């Protein structure tokens, strides 16, 4: 067996182990964390665990090399999206290899990247590192990039800011220098119920919610028509939409409640939270007074759901130049989906790029897979990073 074959077998074995942990966000990730911690300690790495308030989730900060100086972070999340309602032809939590493809939940997003990092950990430990390499493993990324925030706070307390962070989301090993920020919330309108035969005496929460939805739509259309542009994105402007509407109980009852779930996803020129506040201001200043003029008990409740910053790093930044050299790429790109990279940059003051094996188009769907060739490309990137960290 060649060294390349041994490397591929090691990565596949590790990926099979990681996929076997059903780390959907509704469940604990501690069995995976326990296993990874034991594995890393067994190869001489220093491991720190950051536990959440419930004690059921934890992030890991793993260090190989001298911890008293700045190095590079390899970042990945341990959680995966659910599989219920999807038509899988392969067991989602058991790795299946067919013709160079490795099927299983999380193979692309993003346990494939973690498997490569862990497979190369022995090489990191054996190398004469002049700068450390860190592996950051978070939780609950899929429901709002939650678990990486206390992890970043933990590493800031250490007093040594890393030189850069590579977030291994599936980009096909393309160097991604930007992603959109996102703010999403639920707005619940409280009206006054009555028999539909007496509709004018009630306050129809669904109809007021419809006016709010139209405001979101008009704002989004204005951004698409007249807003700022960044042509590196597949959708080159900020977007907004309503995705969830729940209200009413029966056709003959004027509804007294309607909840609207909406979001704005913004390029760097726009602030998604400010856009959300602008449409909410319309609801508070125009719609709510109308409702309360008919019944003072009517009103509006807003529940923030998701809030993470975008990523925007200069194309000529040193970390971008390094990533391109390690990946053997000249080009760079931006993506519309969110990652933890924006948080590493905004909360941790750590320059960040997104680069990893797999394809985001395969994520979150049945028969998710990563190709063994993609994992090999990622391994080459990390091996060159190890050499860079020895210089």
TrEMBL record:
It comes from Methylobacterium tarhaniae. Belongs to the peptidase M20A family. ArgE subfamily. PANTHER family: ACETYLORNITHINE DEACETYLASE, N-ACETYL-L-CITRULLINE DEACETYLASE. This is Acetylornithine deacetylase. Gene3D superfamilies: 3.30.70.360, Zn peptidases. NCBIfam families: AcOrn-deacetyl, PRK07522.1. It is an enzyme of class 3 (hydrolase). Keywords: Amino-acid biosynthesis, Arginine biosynthesis, Cobalt, Cytoplasm, Hydrolase, Metal-binding, Zinc. Residues 177-288 form the Peptidase M20 dimerisation domain. GO terms for molecular function: acetylornithine deacetylase activity; metal ion binding. InterPro entries: AcOrn-deacetyl, ArgE/DapE_CS, Bact_exopeptidase_dim_dom, Peptidase_M20, Peptidase_M20_dimer, Peptidase_M20A. Its EC number is 3.5.1.16. It comes from the Bacteria. GO terms for biological process: L-arginine biosynthetic process. It holds the Pfam family Peptidase_M20. Its cofactor is Zn(2+).
């Amino acid at each position: 067996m060649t060294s390349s074959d041994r490397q591929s077998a090691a990565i596949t074995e590790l990926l099979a182990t990681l996929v076997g942990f059903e780390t959907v966000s509704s469940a604990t990730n501690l069995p995976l964390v326990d296993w990874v911690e034991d594995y890393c300690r067994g190869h001489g790495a220093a491991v720190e665990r950051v536990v959440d308030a419930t004690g059921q989730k934890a992030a890991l900060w793993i260090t190989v090399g001298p911890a008293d100086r700045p190095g590079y972070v390899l970042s990945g999340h341990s959680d995966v999206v659910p599989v219920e309602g999807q038509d899988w032809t392969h067991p989602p939590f058991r790795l299946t290899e067919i013709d160079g493809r490795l099927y299983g939940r999380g193979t692309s997003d993003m346990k494939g990247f973690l498997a490569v990092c862990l497979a190369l950990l022995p090489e990191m430990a054996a190398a004469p590192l002049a700068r450390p390499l860190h592996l950051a493993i978070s939780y609950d990324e899929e429901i709002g990039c939650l678990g990486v925030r206390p992890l970043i706070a933990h590493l800031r307390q250490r007093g040594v800011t890393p030189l850069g962070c590579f977030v291994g989301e599936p980009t096909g090993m393309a160097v991604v220098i930007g992603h959109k920020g996102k703010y999403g919330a639920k707005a619940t309108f409280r009206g006054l119920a009555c028999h539909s035969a007496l509709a004018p005496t009630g306050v129809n929460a669904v109809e007021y919610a419809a006016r709010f939805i139209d405001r979101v739509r008009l704002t989004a259309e204005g951004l698409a028509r007249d807003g700022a542009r960044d042509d590196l994105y597949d959708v080159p402007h900020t977007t907004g939409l309503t995705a969830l509407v729940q209200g009413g109980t029966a056709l003959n009852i004027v509804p007294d409640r309607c909840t609207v779930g909406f979001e704005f996803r913004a390029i760097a020129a726009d602030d998604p939270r400010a856009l959300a506040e602008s449409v909410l201001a319309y609801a508070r200043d125009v719609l709510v007074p109308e409702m309360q003029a008919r019944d003072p008990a009517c009103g509006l409740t807003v529940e923030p759901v998701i809030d993470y910053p975008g990523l925007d790093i200069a194309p000529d930044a040193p970390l971008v130049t390094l990533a391109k050299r390690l990946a053997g790429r000249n080009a760079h790109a931006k993506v519309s989906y969110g990652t933890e990279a924006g948080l590493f940059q905004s909360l941790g003051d750590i320059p960040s790029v997104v680069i990893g094996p797999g394809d985001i188009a395969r994520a979150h769907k049945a028969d998710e897979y990563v190709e063994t060739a993609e994992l090999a490309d990622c391994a080459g990137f990390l091996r060159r990073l190890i050499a860079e960290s020895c210089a």
